[in-house]
Amino acid sequence: MVHSRNLATINLLSLLGLDSVYKELKKDGFKNLSMDLSLALGSFGISPLEYSGFYSMFANYGVRTEPMLVKKIINRQGVEKVYETKTQTMTSPKQSYLMIDMMKEVVKRGTGRNAQVPGIEIAGKTGTTNSSVDAWFCGFSPDIEVITWFGNDNNSPLKKGETGGRSAAPAFKYFMTKYVELHPETTREFKIPEGVESRKIDGTTEFFTDVSPFPKTNNVKQLKEDSGLMF
């Protein structure tokens, strides 16, 4: 994930089983899904607004929030019509934190480095479609989620070499920097939920839970062999 290496994601899909992942995504509301290994790369159309809803499950520690354009309407008589936010629990806080930690690394040392904001933890993921038609960055702090997208209305390619890390991540950084300046009370660090443990593997702190337990060995080569990885 850190360096957007697609083979690792394809490998994970193979281990989990294409059919089971496809059914789970359909159940969760994803549309236009492909029934092949390209599913691991996000090979289906989705809008930034839709994406924000699915990404919220990580930012909210397992609770997906349906995005809303209107929170309430007040008429000339002062009567309010309030629209309630719809939520859905997708996973536990401890399992969500494992994904948060991985996405923090994307920003710290991976393809999302250009999204770093001094003094605040950011988690996120870059995205670039074939021929650079779309360039994404989906990111969040402990308090706010932001998605930046670069693309043309007619789906023509962007300038050669444009990527989510090069185009969308800096735009995210600009917005988030201004947001933190306007809201200095913003939470700066992600809280580690109960049930999350850590251990050093190859000099790096890795997090685990009872659902995603510590591996039996710290040897990376042995881990790959034991897991039967394809790549």
UniProtKB/TrEMBL annotation:
Its EC number is 2.4.1.129. The keyword Hydrolase does not apply. Pfam families: Transpeptidase (PF00905). It is an enzyme of class 2 (transferase). GO terms for cellular component: membrane; outer membrane-bounded periplasmic space. InterPro entries: Beta-lactam/transpept-like, Glycosyltr_51/Transpeptidase, PCN-bd_Tpept. Signal peptide: none annotated. It comes from Sulfurospirillum diekertiae. GO terms for biological process: cell wall organization; peptidoglycan biosynthetic process; regulation of cell shape. PANTHER family: BINDING PROTEIN TRANSPEPTIDASE, PUTATIVE-RELATED (PTHR32282), PENICILLIN-BINDING PROTEIN 1B (PTHR32282:SF11). This is Peptidoglycan glycosyltransferase. Its main location: membrane. It is found in: Membrane. GO terms for molecular function: penicillin binding; peptidoglycan glycosyltransferase activity; serine-type D-Ala-D-Ala carboxypeptidase activity. Keywords: Cell membrane, Cell shape, Cell wall biogenesis/degradation, Glycosyltransferase, Membrane, Peptidoglycan synthesis, Transferase. It catalyses: Preferential cleavage: (Ac)2-L-Lys-D-Ala-|-D-Ala. Also transpeptidation of peptidyl-alanyl moieties that are N-acyl substituents of D-alanine; [GlcNAc-(1->4)-Mur2Ac(oyl-L-Ala-gamma-D-Glu-L-Lys-D-Ala-D-Ala)](n)-di-trans,octa-cis-undecaprenyl diphosphate + beta-D-GlcNAc-(1->4)-Mur2Ac(oyl-L-Ala-gamma-D-Glu-L-Lys-D-Ala-D-Ala)-di-trans,octa-cis-undecaprenyl diphosphate = [GlcNAc-(1->4)-Mur2Ac(oyl-L-Ala-gamma-D-Glu-L-Lys-D-Ala-D-Ala)](n+1)-di-trans,octa-cis-undecaprenyl diphosphate + di-trans,octa-cis-undecaprenyl diphosphate + H(+). Residues 37-176 form the Penicillin-binding protein transpeptidase domain.
